Structure formats: C-alpha cells, structure tokens
Amino acid sequence: MRGVQSAVMAVTSDDARAQGERDARARAGSEPDGAPDDATLTVFQTAAWIPPAYREAYLEGAASVLKRASVGE
C-alpha cells in the first residue's frame, strides 16, 4: 500500500496542470475553423428549452456575451 501511495503522490499539481494544458491545446487544434465550440453548443441546447416568444432575445444576448455577430438560428 505504501508504494501505491508514494506513486500517487509523485504527480504534482504542476504536472496535472501541464497535462491539462496539453489536452486543451490538442483539442483546440483538432477542431476545424468555423466548428462550433462548447459555449455555442450549450447556447443551442439551452435555446431548445426556451419558449419561442423569448428565444430570439436569448440568442441575441448569447451572441453579445460570446462576442459573436449572431448565434441565431
């Protein structure tokens, strides 16, 4: 048990952050230009639950927050 504990403790927070940075860079590089990002996908998934009378205002607000020209349908 002691060997397992020391092996687990050998990974530092710097190592974990470095691994996360590599993962984020790899994911960003794998998305083609113009592909929707996570925020845009979340906006459209949420818009599906908003009543039609309020959906356009929601999408316009989301576009301004995401600094996009338009996120509309």
TrEMBL record:
Basic and acidic residues biased stretches: 14-30
Region Disordered, annotated ranges:
1-38
Organism superkingdom: Bacteria
What is this protein identified as?
Uncharacterized protein
Species annotation: Actinomycetospora cinnamomea
